[in-house]
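Input structure tokens:
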């Protein structure tokens, strides 16, 4: 019933919409960039061609709505995100948005009118940006604070301006856009971005929950100096202190099974071979299903970093970039998705998500669930990211069955 050719074609067209001056390989379509806006225009046209009513809410979320037979019922929401990381793949987010579009388009083409409305959503800025992450889904369920909207990052502008660029309305975000009861349920297709389904021989899996994530943006300030004439005892080397963070983060997570910690972005100034690094701006993030473990890792990192800065007479600033709690999906939703995955692909397994997703925000006000798709060698956030057409098709069939089961209550 699902149009496999159209799904594959849409995936390849969207994957080709990328930032002109980005890394040669992979797909780069970061939130707020012109390429992102181009991708959204293309998506909006596909939503309209599928017979959906298209809108962009104040949080910058692109929404295609298919009405239901009972106008008193809240929508079943399906979707994901169309923004990518730098040098990313073609499936992270895109498969969820285009798979959801395929479900709605198939319902419409076959004249199948569900009781509940269906909303296909491309959540704005799911990926980590200097202005934050999960921004569209956070705006939807919690609004965005004036302090956050005023955050101003060189090259990105303020979050308020960036929101306006994507059709959002910062002034309307003082309160949540949706509240408990406004959404019947949320289901997202997403590539697993890990090796478990592949190792177990399953095409699809039912996600049991999403890790909690804490991410900080830190600037360490020392003093640039001549690398040849400044003796080791007088240096105020900012990068030497940040090196302590990188090794402490790795050690702290290695000693705690089920946790991860990463220094992913690092900007050295002046970044020249014969100059002592005077300033370093970097990010550090920690993840676990148990936030006590995240807190313990953060304490270890902070103690080591603070001591390294004191020793070198350095100063620092720390800004919270992201802080989301772990989410455990309701057993009834996991069971529904599990059954739909078996019906669509012959087998299934249950597994948690080590990646963050918009479902961790929408899950705060509505029953949420996710369908994971086998990922080649578990690789993601890289050009090698891949999920096979047959698995992608099965995931959309599973979403179709899940939506119908939810519609029947
Ligand atoms: O970072 C993540 O886990 C997701 O890809 N945004
Ligand atoms: Mn991602
Ligand atoms: Mn994603």
């Amino acid at each position: 019933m699902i149009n496999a050719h159209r799904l594959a074609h849409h995936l390849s067209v969207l994957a080709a919409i990328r930032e002109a001056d980005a890394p040669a390989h992979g797909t780069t379509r970061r939130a707020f960039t012109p390429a992102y806006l181009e991708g959204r225009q293309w998506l909006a046209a596909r939503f309209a061609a599928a017979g959906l009513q298209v809108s962009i809410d104040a949080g910058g979320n692109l929404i295609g709505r298919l009405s239901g037979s009972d106008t008193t019922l809240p929508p079943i929401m399906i979707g994901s995100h169309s923004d990518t990381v730098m040098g990313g793949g073609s499936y992270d987010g895109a498969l969820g948005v285009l798979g959801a579009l395929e479900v709605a388009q198939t319902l419409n083409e076959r004249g199948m009118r569900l009781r509940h409305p269906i909303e296909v959503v491309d959540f704005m800025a799911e990926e980590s940006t200097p202005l934050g992450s999960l921004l569209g889904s956070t705006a939807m369920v919690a609004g965005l604070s004036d302090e956050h909207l005023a955050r101003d990052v060189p090259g990105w502008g303020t979050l308020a301006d960036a929101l306006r660029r994507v059709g959002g309305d910062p002034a309307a975000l003082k309160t949540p856009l949706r509240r408990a009861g406004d959404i019947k349920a949320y289901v997202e297709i997403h590539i697993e971005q890990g090796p478990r389904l592949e190792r177990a021989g399953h095409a699809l899996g039912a996600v049991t929950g999403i890790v909690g994530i804490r991410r900080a943006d830190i600037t360490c300030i020392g003093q640039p100096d001549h690398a040849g004439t400044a003796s080791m005892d007088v240096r105020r080397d900012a990068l030497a202190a940040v090196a302590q963070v990188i090794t402490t983060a790795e050690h702290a997570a290695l000693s705690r099974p089920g946790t991860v910690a990463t220094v992913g972005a690092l900007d050295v100034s002046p970044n020249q071979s014969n100059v002592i690094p005077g300033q370093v701006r970097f990010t550090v993030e920690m993840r676990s299903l148990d936030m006590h473990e995240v807190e313990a890792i953060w304490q270890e990192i902070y103690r080591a970093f603070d001591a390294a800065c004191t020793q070198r007479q350095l100063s620092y600033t720390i800004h919270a970039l992201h802080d989301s709690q772990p989410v455990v999906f309701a057993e009834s939703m996991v069971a529904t998705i599990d059954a739909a995955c078996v019906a669509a692909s012959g087998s299934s397994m249950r597994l948690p998500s080590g990646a963050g997703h918009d479902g961790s925000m929408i899950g705060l006000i509505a029953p949420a669930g996710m369908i994971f798709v086998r990922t080649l060698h578990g690789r993601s956030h890289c050009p090698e990211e891949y999920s096979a057409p047959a698995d992608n098709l099965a995931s959309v069939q599973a979403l179709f069955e899940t939506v119908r089961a939810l519609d029947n209550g």
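The first strand starts at residue 53 and ends at 56. Residues 291-311 form the longest helix (21 residues).
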